[in-house]
Amino acid sequence: MKEFLVELTTTPPAGTEPAEVGRRRAAESVRAKELAAQGHLFRLWRPVGELRSIGVWRASNETELREEVLGTLPLWPWMTAVITPLQSHPNDPGHGR
């Protein structure tokens, strides 16, 4: 699988009921755990004081990542994504592990 740096920002549509946002966020947590168990979600961070996430995700290609991985997230319809394909750096201290 290839690795991708993914920056996700979630913006619920104006007027969305708080209960719906809460329901989707709870479902998002469940789905993220499933994707981690499948090897798609490798690492995930939230910058301090911000409502976005930055993660390392794995998929065969960007199409699979968008459609079959990220597209299954309950909050995906409300997300904007910046996806950057990654490759190993020869000076990476973890390279070859």
CATH topology: Alpha-Beta Plaits
Largest sheet: 4 strands, antiparallel
Q: Find the structural class using helix and strand composition.
A: alpha+beta
Amino- and carboxy-terminal Cα gap: 15 Å
Strand content: 25-35%
Query: Could you name the CATH homologous superfamily?
Result: Dimeric alpha+beta barrel
Basic shape: elongated
Which runs of at least 5 residues are low in confidence (pLDDT < 50)? none
Radius of gyration: 15 Å
Order of helices and strands: EHEEHE
Instruction: Please write the CATH class name.
Output: Alpha Beta
Count of alpha/pi helices: 2
- Give the spatial strand order of the biggest sheet: 2-3-1-4
- How many structural domains does the protein architecture include? 1
The pLDDT mean sits at: 95
What's the total number of strands?
4
- What is the helix content? 25-40%
- CATH architecture heading: 2-Layer Sandwich
